[in-house]
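User: structure tokens for this one?
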Amino acid sequence: MTGRPRRGVYPGSFNPATVAHLAVAEAALEQCGLDVVELVISVDPLGKDAAGQLSLEHRLAALHAAAVTRPWLEVRTTTDRLLVDIADGADVLVVGADKWAQL
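Assistant:
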């Protein structure tokens, strides 16, 4: 590989993380020729009720557990709330069907 890795950013609440989230991430990896897909959780997501969500620690633990067996998968948090800010610098923005419908 030459140059920087091709990176996809997949923001979501992952409440809870599901096999569908992982399937979307893997499909993006393969179909977009990515080297890395980041699952990104906003610590204060726009339009989500914090009271109705699993704890941030619980959701992060589940994502980190999934990343252990997928060397191309990374996990991070952000204080950004808008997709344009979360995806800044990425090659590809990955969204699920629910977000696509909102867009």
